[in-house]
Amino acid sequence: MNLSIQNSRVRLIDEGAGAPVLLLHGVPDNADMWAGVIARLAPRFRCIAPDLPGLGSSEAPAGFDCTLDSMAAWVDSLVTGLGIDQPLHVVVHDFGGPYGLAWAVRHPAQVRSLTISSTNFFSDYRWHSAARMWRTPVLGEIGLALVTKSVWRSQMRKFAPGLSDAYIDQGFTMSIANPAVRRMIMRLYRTTNPENFRGWEDELLQLTARVPTLVLWGDKDPFAPKSTAERYGGRVEHFAEYGHWLPVEAPEVYADRLQVLFRQ
């Protein structure tokens, strides 16, 4: 379905009934990354997974600047636009982390629980090598523009051998092959500087000390060090056999852990 948020079109999945669960994806993904998890949660929960601004099939609002304040405001507009008037279970992955965790910091009373995977919200983070290239003006644009489907497949198989070819190809079609999405990817990487999290990280840790928090981490993740997991507080579970895309690689395991958390 589509929804108008901040005068821009947002594509989202909204399935199931019950306590609301907000699932926020990262780059180069879209809401469909949560399909396997949603299929298992929807019988008992209302699952809401948007394409984030400028990613997937969603438009970015005019003047959207990719700051943490703007990310938090966008999520709040989404929650308000959907008419949700009760606390949510918030589940974040990759760039969905800055969106969802910034919103949680700004609206702590609306958070029922937090689940965090393969993301950063700390000011001492060091970008991985691919990100450092994407963050470099001109070089990043040229590098992404020259990536073909076969090159993308080769890279993704190296980074995430547990992903299917179909999922990898969809990611290429929906992101790397789309010039508008490539531009948003560049903006996200170049705007999200580690120092942006100063102050925010402290407020997040105050929140995770109060609300049920689960950290699920694929230890083969080449982008987010497994040592980051314990820094968020809450209950931490490591998965030695999985990588960055844990919700896609093991949706049944991921959904099972969420349901245990949601019953608390």
Folded structure, characterized:
With 264 residues, the chain is α/β, with parallel strands linked by helices. 40% of the residues lie in helices and 18% in strands. It is built from 11 helices and 8 strands. The chain has helices at residues 35-41, 68-81, 96-106, 129-134, 139-145, 149-159, 165-176, 179-191, 200-208, 246-249, 251-262, and strands spanning 2-5, 8-15, 19-24, 45-50, 88-93, 111-117, 213-218, 235-239. Strands 1-2-4-3-5-6-7-8 form an 8-stranded mixed beta sheet, sandwiched between helices. β3, α1 (35-41) and β4 (45-50) form a beta-alpha-beta unit. α2 (68-81) packs across α3 (96-106) and α3 crosses α9 (200-208). 43% of the residues are buried. The model has no long low-confidence stretch (mean pLDDT 94).
Helix-strand blueprint:
Blueprint: E1 2-5, E2 8-15, E3 19-24, H1 35-41, E4 45-50, H2 68-81, E5 88-93, H3 96-106, E6 111-117, H4 129-134, H5 139-145, H6 149-159, H7 165-176, H8 179-191, H9 200-208, E7 213-218, E8 235-239, H10 246-249, H11 251-262
Parallel strand pairs: 3-4, 3-5, 5-6, 6-7, 7-8
Antiparallel strand pairs: 1-2, 2-4
Helix pairs in contact: 1-11, 2-3, 3-9, 5-8, 6-7
Overall shape: globular
Strand content: 15-25%
- List the secondary-structure elements in sequence, H or E: EEEHEHEHEHHHHHHEEHH
Strand ordering within the main sheet = 1-2-4-3-5-6-7-8
Name the poorly predicted regions: none
Distance between the termini: 31 Å
How many whole angstroms does the radius of gyration measure?
17 Å
Helix content: 40-55%
Number of E-state strands: 8
Structural class: alpha/beta
Please give the largest β-sheet: 8 strands, mixed
Q: Provide the residue-averaged pLDDT.
A: 94
